[in-house]
């Protein structure tokens, strides 16, 4: 495009902009690596700029540096007009620890850049949208909220109408999102050939995002590290905050196939606790996910009672997770993603990796939000009926899930029974595509059959028959490895599975 055409186009854009009402949407702070569209407004160093050409921003392309892309609309120092008062503030949802609010947008002579949400006289949060979720509240407690609009020059509107709401009574759901059936996905903090996806680009169909992974740093036994792969720490924290405002939960997962973690002694345990608490606090994660594989967990010789483990790496891991959970309060989420051998595999044999997660699950069951065993890369497994079921089938999903819901004798010993978990504590884990795992991919049709049987008792004619024929209405949902593989397949997993989950509410 030559300069003459650019100049003409700029004039047309500015003329059109002059005819449009200003301040009816919230301008956000300019940032690199963002897809800006023609007409978008941003703030930068207190000034407001309007986008002249659609482009993806890069470092060095700050609005003052590229007049071909950005036009100065208003200098912050020239603006003394406050935005209009936000109206129609209302509560859209609530839980024991959070309240979601929405309101009608304010207008301004230049543009609203933020909305400040107040809990009484205290600032509870800032949003660049006309909605916000206030978290960290106490159960069964009354709160009064108002909202003020703010422009780039720092002018604030008066307070909106106030709304008073009482949070729900305390429950056992941890800090899990509202809603009966959850779609949970792992997001790669690395490139494995699926697709490189920024955290902020995760599909809105997911309720819980497991960030994979925090891993051992090698600096000291038990010490963990996490560095965002394709974003600065500031950008990554902003993405987490934005997802949380949308009602999503973002957890940090430990382990994975390459994350070998063993806490052999008290020093390693304390290093693990300190480093994980620092990671969680730094980025604002909602919880921790335990995805230990390989030899990270193994039952030692002579350790035969899962209710009273003696193997140091198991005892220390239990103590460490308890300490971390207790540090963050009742809304802190704890999830687990073991392989089938480490859980259901303990039915026939207990020792080494077989059943090695059982003492961890049992010791932490009062803190556990939910578990989603990996129903893939496992081969065939035996169900409660003593029959073997092949991964990737509807029967496999139902049989493996009901073992956790009903409980089972460990090591086939009727005097050593693993008690079943609550319905809302159990989900199933599945590959998002055939490329996501070496085995266990399950078609959306078979996922649909399995879920409808598990939740509603709606039989599909399979070989496995539910012990509880009416199903488990409180069953939690589905996890997938992974969000990235799902995106690479055009969301061929999340779209149909989300539809099934929604039909079960």
Automatic annotation (TrEMBL):
Domain GH18: 181-504
Coiled coil start-end: none
Top-level class of the enzyme under EC nomenclature: hydrolase
One GO molecular-function entry: chitin binding
Protein name: chitinase
SMART domains in the cross-refs: ChtBD3, FN3, Glyco_18
Upper taxonomic lineage: Bacteria, Bacillati, Bacillota, Bacilli, Bacillales
Family the entry assigns: Belongs to the glycosyl hydrolase 18 family. Chitinase class II subfamily.
């Amino acid at each position: 495009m030559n300069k003459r055409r650019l100049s003409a186009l700029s004039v047309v854009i500015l003329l059109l902009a002059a005819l449009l009402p200003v301040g009816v949407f919230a301008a956000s702070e300019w940032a690199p690596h963002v897809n800006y569209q023609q007409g978008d407004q941003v703030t930068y160093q207190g000034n407001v700029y309007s986008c002249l050409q659609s482009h993806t921003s890069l470092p060095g392309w700050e609005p003052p540096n590229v007049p071909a892309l950005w036009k100065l609309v208003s200098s912050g120092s020239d603006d003394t007009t406050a935005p209009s008062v936000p109206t129609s503030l209302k509560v859209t949802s609530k839980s024991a620890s959070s309240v979601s609010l929405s309101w009608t947008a304010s207008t301004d002579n230049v543009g609203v850049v933020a909305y400040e949400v107040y809990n009484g006289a205290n600032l509870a949060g800032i949003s660049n949208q006309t909605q916000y979720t206030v978290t960290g509240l106490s159960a069964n407690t009354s709160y009064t909220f108002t909202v003020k609009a703010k422009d780039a020059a720092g002018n604030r509107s008066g307070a909106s109408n106030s709304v008073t709401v009482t949070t729900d009574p305390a429950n056992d759901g941890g800090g899990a999102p509202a809603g009966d059936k959850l779609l949970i996905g792992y997001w790669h903090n690395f490139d494995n050939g699926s697709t490189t996806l920024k955290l902020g680009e995760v599909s809105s169909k997911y309720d819980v995002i497991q960030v994979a992974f925090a891993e051992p740093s090698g600096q000291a036994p038990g010490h963990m590290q996490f560095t965002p792969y394709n974003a600065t720490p500031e950008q990554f924290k902003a993405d987490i905050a934005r997802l949380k405002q949308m009602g999503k939960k973002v957890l940090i997962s430990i382990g994975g196939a390459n994350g070998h973690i063993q806490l052999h002694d008290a020093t390693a345990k304390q290093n693990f606790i300190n480093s994980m608490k620092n990671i969680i606090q730094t980025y604002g994660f909602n919880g921790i996910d335990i995805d230990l594989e390989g030899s990270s967990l193994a039952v030692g010789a002579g350790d035969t009672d899962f209710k009273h483990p003696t193997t140091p790496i198991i005892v220390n891991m239990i103590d460490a997770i308890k300490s971390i959970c207790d540090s963050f309060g009742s809304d802190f989420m704890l999830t687990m993603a073991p392989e089938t051998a480490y859980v259901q595999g303990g039915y026939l044999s207990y020792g080494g990796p077989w059943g090695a997660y059982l003492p961890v699950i049992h010791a932490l069951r009062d803190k556990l939000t939910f578990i989603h065993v990996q129903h893939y890369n496992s081969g065939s497994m035996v169900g409660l009926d003593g029959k073997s079921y092949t991964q990737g089938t509807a029967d496999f999903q139902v049989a493996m899930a009901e073992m956790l819901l009903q409980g089972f004798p460990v090591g086939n010993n009727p005097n050593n029974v693993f008690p079943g978990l609550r319905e809302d504590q159990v989900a199933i884990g599945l590959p998002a595509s055939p490329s996501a795992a070496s085995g266990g991919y399950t078609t959306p049709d078979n996922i649909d059959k399995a879920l409808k049987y598990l939740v509603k008792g709606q039989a599909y004619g399979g070989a496995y028959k539910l012990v509880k024929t009416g199903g488990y209405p409180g069953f939690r949902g589905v996890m997938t490895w992974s969000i990235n593989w799902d995106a690479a397949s055009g969301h061929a997993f999340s779209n149909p599975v989300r539809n099934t989950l929604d039909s079960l509410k």
